[in-house]
Amino acid sequence: MRNLLLTICYDGSGYHGWQIQQNAVSVQQVFQEALVRVLHEKPDIKGCSRTDSFVHAREYCVSLKTEHTIPCARLLGALNHFLPEDIAVLDCREVSPDFHARYSCIGKEYVYQIWNNPVRNPFLNHRALHYWYALDLDKLNKAAAHFLGAHDFSSFCTMDARERGNFVRTITKAECAREGDMVTFTVAADGFLYNMVRIMVGTLLRVAQGKLQPEDIPRIIEAKDRKAAGPTAPPCGLYLNHVYYEDVK
């Protein structure tokens, strides 16, 4: 039995997230269908993250176990032949039997893109948030710096039917940058909560609007109350940028 790690990327505009759903098309469903066409079996695939509807991934990791002997290079090529143009396999390798795409993950990095120009860019439709008001990067970075470290991020999590657990996460990177009219918020952590990055972005935009100050972020974190933070930013600008594993990537 071989354990394979596949790294893929996808444009999430046409998908309701990674995880298979009853009445909506997901990335996992389409990827699994391509696997069946190549391997003539339906392996149990493990994704590194759930990812929300319409969120993109520049790097998403999948593990699966199979007895099929197809070489990794041939599997990569065959899958890319059958996958639609908005999903691609970047890499395939054999890993240790105990590797799991989700549980072996030690951290992730997300990027949120904001097109900061009075005029919308048609080529960034569904790929960046169009925000036409001025953005003060110094002010945003002062606010983002308060995210760093280990905190209970309950204020930055959308509560759903899932049981409440440990909401402490350790942020190792949180910074805004500008390249021309594109502003990006990059955040890395040992894990993320449901809608956490999008709520961070919505809160930073409240800072940009003067409705919050950078010094308000610690108070919002301490509140452990979703109502204390800003709105949830749209999914279109969010990208899973990098997935970290020990001794693998």
Automatic annotation (TrEMBL):
Amino-acid positions noted as binding substrate in the UniProt annotation, renumbered to this chain: 110
Organism superkingdom: Bacteria
Catalytic activity from the UniProt record: uridine(38/39/40) in tRNA = pseudouridine(38/39/40) in tRNA
Listed SUPFAM superfamilies: Pseudouridine synthase (SSF55120)
Molecular function per GO: RNA binding; tRNA pseudouridine(38-40) synthase activity
Stretches assigned to the Pseudouridine synthase I TruA alpha/beta domain: 10-104, 143-246
Biological processes, Gene Ontology terms: tRNA pseudouridine synthesis
Catalytic activity, EC: 5.4.99.12
Residues forming the catalytic site: 52
Keywords, in A-Z order: Isomerase, tRNA processing
HAMAP family: TruA
Function statement: Formation of pseudouridine at positions 38, 39 and 40 in the anticodon stem and loop of transfer RNAs.
Subunit details: Homodimer.
Protein family membership: Belongs to the tRNA pseudouridine synthase TruA family.
Protein name stated in the entry: tRNA pseudouridine synthase A
Organism: Caproiciproducens galactitolivorans
Gene behind the chain: truA
